[in-house]
Amino acid sequence: MKTKVAGAQTGDERFDLGENLIMNKYWLGAAAPAFALLCLTSAFANDIPAADAPATDSAPPGFKISGHIEAGITGNPDSPRDGLNYGQLFTDKSNQLLVNQAMLTAEQPLDPKATGYDFGFRLQAMAGTDARYSHFLGEFDKSISDRYQLDLVEANVQAHLPWVSEGGIDVKFGQYVTPLGYETIDATANPFYSHSYMFNFGIPLKHTGGYLTAHLSDTLDLYLGGDTGVNTTIGGGVGGPSFLGGVGLNALLDGKLTVLALTHIGPADPSNSVGFDANTALRYINDAVLTYKASDTWSYTTDLNYIRDDGFNAQAFGIAQYVSYTLDDTVTLNGRAEIYRDSNGFFVAAFPHPLDFVNAESGLPGTVISAGPATYGALTAGISYKPAMPDNLPTVMLRPELRWDHTLSGTKAFDSGTSTDQVTLAVDLVVSF
């Protein structure tokens, strides 16, 4: 286990890639990887819609205000000396009750059945411990140095334009949650309290910019856009003009299978990085989510991820498999199995103090705990319980989970760097209104 001070790299400290992998580091688009991954894993996936998927309500959507509060605790029987559940970010504090999210959303969604012009917006803010890791760099990221912080999650305008094809084009512009990946920031949209390694370390969380989704046919969507980089605002000293693109494949295998494969390419390292030009060193982030609805009760998700940073010559990749069984209207059983390889010990890390994560992203001094190069495996089993509530009361979701993390490479990453294993028992409560 190595503790590093962020922002103090020298040329000799740059990560040296020591593995010859079959993956090509220059995935310049997502279409080819999407079809390749589909051939390899088309038996797996889940029909949980992406964030931009249209609603199924027959009535057109209107302006609405909604919100939720999430609180939980992650028990660790080893009681690590540093108080950290290594490999986890949003649930990183062991044996401590956290109020992760108090989120409020005001929005005018687009009408999914619109055939002409339609316009909407989304404004979302959050307070809680999750905000330590979800900031836009350069925006409220240093306003509070306590564990509980404030964050602007989204602020964007949207439009449906009846152009190009019968399905038209959906456009989003402003600040928004990344369309990459399966899990997301909003606690109500995830199957588990804890997050996967890929969500924590393999994808961006947010962007400033814009992208379009062209519905070219009932089967094919094209994604195309640009932004200022990974988790940053305009002129924040990190990142630069970046490309986002890919494809969505819908209604495959008699309507049971969908695929979303996206890539994000652009600078992502701090401008004060030593040994290379941060403005030209690119980070390639590629993710494909395959969703498959086997029946009314069984559904599956496969998430595949590859990330490479040319500046620090580092890469990581992994696969996470989700399975969900709907027992009845109130109980859903969930499972997740993941393998994640951090080839250079660059991406997976722990950040013990409230500002350590944003300082590391910005190249400023701070404490970063790294286990070094490692291959991580994780198994998670959980229950999502949503009891029936009267219409005039908030809805409630309770999610207990049991998780086992293990380093397949033999690296002692857990329990303050003394163990290859970590078992956590967690539960969160989400109250939505």
Summarize the entry for a quick read:
The chain is mainly β. It contains 5 helices and 18 strands. A hairpin with a 7-residue loop joins strand 5 and strand 6.
Protein model, in words:
This protein has one domain: Porin (Beta Barrel). It has five helices and 18 strands. About 12% of the residues have low confidence. The protein is mainly beta.
Stated plainly, the CATH topology is called Porin
Question: Sheet bearing the most strands, described?
Answer: 16 strands, antiparallel, barrel
Strands, count: 18
CATH class: Mainly Beta
Number of domains: 1
pLDDT < 50 stretches: 5-57
CATH architecture: Beta Barrel
Return the average pLDDT rounded to an integer: 89
What is the molecular shape? globular
Strand content: 35-45%
